[in-house]
Amino acid sequence: MKLKNIDLLTLLISLFALSSCNNPDGIGLDIEPDILLNSSIVDSSTVFTKLIKEDSVASNYTERSVLAYMKDDEFGETTSNIVFALTLPSSNVSFGTNPILDSAVLVMSYSSSSPLYGDSLKYKVNVNQLNETLYSATKQKVFYTNKEWNVNAAIVGSKEFFPAYNDSLNINLYGHQDSIVKIAPQLRIPLNNQFVVDNILSLDSATLSTSQLFANHFKGLRLSIDKISAPANGGAISLDTYTEGASRLEIYYRYTNSEDKQDTTSISFPIAGSSGTAATEVKWENTGTPARTTLDNPDKNHEKLYLKGLAGTKIKVEFPYLDSLKRLGKNLAINRAELIFTAEEPQQTSLTPLSALRIYSWDLAHQPALIPDENPSDARYLGAGYVGGVYNSTKKIYVINVTGYIQDLFRKKHPNYGTYITTYDFYGRTGRLNAPGRSVLLGGASSSPDKVKLKIYYSDLK
Questions:
Q1: Residue 346 in contact with residue 393, Cβ under 8 Å?
Q2: Measured between alpha carbons, how far apart are the two ends of the chain, in Å?
Q3: pLDDT tens digit string along 428-452?
Q4: Most buried of the four, 216, 382, 402, 459, by CB within 10 Å?
Q5: Is residue 329 classed exposed, middle or buried when 0-12, 13-18 and 19+ CB atoms within 10 A define those classes?
Q6: pLDDT-wise least confident of 169-173, 246-250, 274-278
Q7: What angle do CA 14, 17, 330 make, to 5 degrees?
Q8: At residue 308, what are phi and psi to the nearest 5 degrees?
């Protein structure tokens, strides 16, 4: 077998460097043996990359909300707060006669996948009341990550905790102090009793008749990480505010029953994020950082790429010399194409590289579109997960299968309106906050042999 390893820039100036080898270097996804046996390889460094500030993204209707404080020498300081409304468990809520509050606990369930990014040390979370209404029973608004929410300065609850998302908890069953129950891992934040009495337990029947009337009075709550006591590099904690009732306010109280005796009971006010009633507020302070310097540089080919989740950054990718492939044969067939990014080791070891990269193209209207390899309506659809982009921690690379997409660009099947790398699935809103991490990637202007590459396996059908 003969494999040709040719730099596309070299092709552009008509200088060809051909070499033989027994096997490809193994970089990439699993490749079908037939492709290896019948293909030559163009191993190209001619990829242009530019770091771009990400637009704000929709922060409600997401499958998770992110509570974060991260401090990074390369990226700066990221703060992510969670705001949400509480809804009534039913219409016309009543606390009975002479209710007496025992305790109120804000229960926040961890996300089912990747709930922690960064340090697993002790954090402190603070709770404040919103000064604006989030909930709408008629038409719930879409909120964006850059919205700054108006909150009351008074802290109405706090908790120091370790993000023990794998550890179940043992709690005393209310009203039965000798009974202990095991519950799923969750963050339990006690709220100030007087705050709950004044704002919930003492409300009249009209205010407690519907979730909208209740929300108009109560507004909502905000969770934030206490920066002073946060770990050195901090981290991001993903909580399930999407599944109705997974996160909630639990109120434990006594009331006088019909026999003029005290009974104990509890009531839960659920967070229903699937209805848009939970949002994430993100602030990114990056003055003086390498990431900011790169963003402020208008060059279209950057040496390092500071890719960041939570509506941070994205990468524009260009393939300027695809036409030069035509010089390799009159009837060229592209059998496989891989876009390969190499990640740098992080300076802060707890802030590890992103677990995966995502790719999309722009359509005629400059809207995100699936590339053919990920488009179920395209005959070249590879199936879910087969495009790759998952981080290989051993080789420190991301490999994205872009075969169908490069075929179309090479054949000029449609104009190239833009190719982008991001941290999240652009289609739909639920997954846009699923990757709060960051990666430093070697860009197209890097002098390193590990800079971004487009690797093409091709045949000349003649």
A1: no
A2: 18
A3: 667 889 999 999 999 998 888 899 9
A4: 402
A5: middle
A6: 169-173
A7: 55
A8: -140, 135
